[in-house]
Amino acid sequence: MKNQEQISSTSKSNKVLIFLARFLVGAVFAFSGFVKAVDPLGSCYKFTDYFNLAFDMPWMSDFALPLAFLLSALEFTTGIMLIFNLKPRWAVWFAFSFMVVFLPITLYIALKNPVHDCGCFGDALVLDNWTTFYKNVALMLIILYLIFNRKKMDNPLSDNAELGIAFAVFLIAIVFQHFMLRHLPILDFRPYKIGNNIAEKMAIPEGAKRDVYASELTYKNSVTGEVKVVTDKELMDNKYLYEDSTWVWQDTKSILLEKGFQPEIHDFTITDTAGNDYAQQVLNFDKPVLLVITHKLEKSDTDGLDILSHLQTYAQKHDYIILGLTSSNWDYIEQIKSEYSVDFPFFQTDDITLKTIVRANPGIVKLEKGTVTGKWNFRDFKYDK
Predict the structure, then answer these.
(1) Are residues 249 and 283 in the same domain?
(2) What is the pLDDT of residue 231?
(3) Contact, 39 vs 183, CB < 8 A?
(4) 29 lies in the same domain as 173
(5) pLDDT-above-70 percentage for the chain
(6) How far apart are CA 51 and CA 251, in angstroms?
(7) Per-residue burial over 111-125, b = 16 or more CB atoms within 10 Å of its CB, e = otherwise
(8) How much is the pTM?
(9) Are residues 34 and 157 in the same domain?
(10) Residues 182-203, mean pLDDT to the nearest whole number
(11) Do 20 and 76 sit in the same domain of this protein?
């Protein structure tokens, strides 16, 4: 009798552990898939970074957006299947397949550091590369536990019902991403979200730790060809480098020794053809400012470019200042202004910064004394016709 009670207790404990493991893995996958689905362009940009910077496969960049859609939908569907115990044996193998692919990739990224973060949770939760790898190791161990116990996970629903629900979840994820792509993410995790003051996000607090740099000097011996590299602090212990004429200075470069405080926004500039930066001036205008953001004019939606003149009329009518921001070259800017009858000035801003500010091309951002009070995809801006 006692043995039966012990077996029953062990069985219940095992079921609880299986449930907790299944729910935890499912929650991680569902969350990861959801935050990617909210911002499909962000995922597309991250894929592009991987292909260009990590794997030297720029030709794959053309597939970045469909891959972003597919990854998000598969992750979210796998997570929902695990949470609600839909075809659980399939679900754990799906999760295992993900880890087989991404565990070595995240190890490589952690070792080589070609990108600063993996983007596994979008902008909602930014993890450094080693933390991401350790997270995937932990997930793999839990998934292996679920695989060994997969026969103990059953669902009272019929196979057709489980498959139907899973397929519906996948389709909903795809349609949802398409909606986010044509409009704007319903959740904005970036520092330029509505309500944020850009100047405040750029500010460095008094007494904040600054970056620490050192100068690295390279000398070459004109007789032996030997090359010696020293820092400026080490130079005094190697006086022969500048006292002996056979050692000839080659190069000096600055190296970062210790990272200091970095504000959330550190790369917001608005420059003219002469390289003058008007960012602070724009952030302090008394009048509201409409920023028409086209990170690449040559890649802009033509329907969006068609409304530029309407935006210009709208700004004049409401006494707004209107500026265009792009990373395109000045010749192409002038070509577009002429073609679409645009009179308002354009300035240059870094391409990555513009993609961060608004996930649309073109997108419209309204500023009031540096505070973001409105953001629109060009399809959603209601100008006066």
Answers:
(1) no
(2) 85
(3) no
(4) yes
(5) 97
(6) 32
(7) eeeeeebbbbbbbee
(8) 0.84
(9) yes
(10) 95
(11) yes
